[in-house]
Amino acid sequence: MTTIDTATGREAPAELSEERVRDIFTGIAGQYEKFNHFSSFGQDRRWLRALVESANIKPTDCVLDVAGGTGEVTFGICKRCNPAVIVLSDFTPAMLDVARKRIERGDSRGVVVETCVVDAQDIPFEDASFDVVTMAYGIRNIPDRMRALQEIRRVLVPGGTVAILEFSTPPFPPARAFYNAYLKWGIPAWGQHFTGRRDDFVYLGNSIKAFPDQLSFARMLEQAGFQNVKFKNLAFGAACIHTARTGQ
Questions:
Q1: Could you give all domains of the chain from N- to C-terminal order, each with its CATH number?
Q2: Quick one: pLDDT band at residue 1, thresholds 50, 70, 90?
Q3: Is 97 helix (H, G, I), strand (E, B) or coil?
Q4: Distance between first and last Cα of the chain
Q5: 98-102, long-range: CB within 8 Å, 24+ apart, which pairs?
Q6: Which of 11, 148, 189, 206 sits in a 20 to 30 Å window from 82, CA-based?
């Protein structure tokens, strides 16, 4: 399968993106949640709530949160859905270190939350292990996205649900022009303010612009074998939630 440079979308060795992503998110782990909140003008929490709602999680479900970072999605699920268990996974150990501190202070609200360093391109769980898989802001940082989607489908039970929140492409041209300018100038400025690592956030902006638009990513989900693929735009299409199900 073809791997890409996630900053450009062009074919490149997987190691290029993997090493860069781990370095970036190790450096910003402690400020990641604050950056998301301010750079989205407070919309991130509303978007995460919408992701959790779209996953339709039941109290009996086993949930895998892929690229779950510091746990924003996981703890939102704990608060609103009270599932049987959540496996909070991420490629970067430093992000999970922050999440474990949140577990210690009670953010899991009694839900069993396990943490695990996981490469989404090679998920270390048995087939049909989870009822629901969630992912927020992770798929665009993966060099072999098709392999990751196929791995997600593999670990889902028949009829299981995947819900993915990712930055996307505003379809209305004026909104798209404003958004692209914000990615070029605003995101690096926020990154410099919170972490002093401007170049890392230049990459994040580039990775958003290089990510497929809503319809293209929906087709990727279908090509990975998912059914009932749907998407919902947020903030005029600046972000988007895709949901899909595995076959029975």
A1: 24-245 (3.40.50.150)
A2: low
A3: helix
A4: 26
A5: 98/29, 98/30, 98/32, 98/33, 98/69, 98/70, 98/71, 99/68, 99/69, 99/70, 99/71, 99/74, 102/70, 102/71, 102/75
A6: 148
The label of the residue with tokens 């990975």 reads 224
Whole-number Å distance between alpha carbons of 215 and 169 = 10
Decide: 234 and 50 in contact? Cβ < 8 Å.
yes
Model confidence pLDDT, tens digit, residues 85-99: 999 999 999 999 999
Strands 239-245 and 227-234: antiparallel
Which run of H or of E encompasses 206? helix 198-210
Query: Quick check: 112 and 89 in contact, CB under 8 A?
Result: no
Q: How much is the pTM?
A: 0.95
Residue pLDDT, tens place only, 36-66: 887 888 888 999 999 999 999 999 999 999 9
pLDDT at 242: 98
Q: What percent of the chain has pLDDT over 90?
A: 77
CA nearest neighbour of 67 among 107, 120, 146: 120
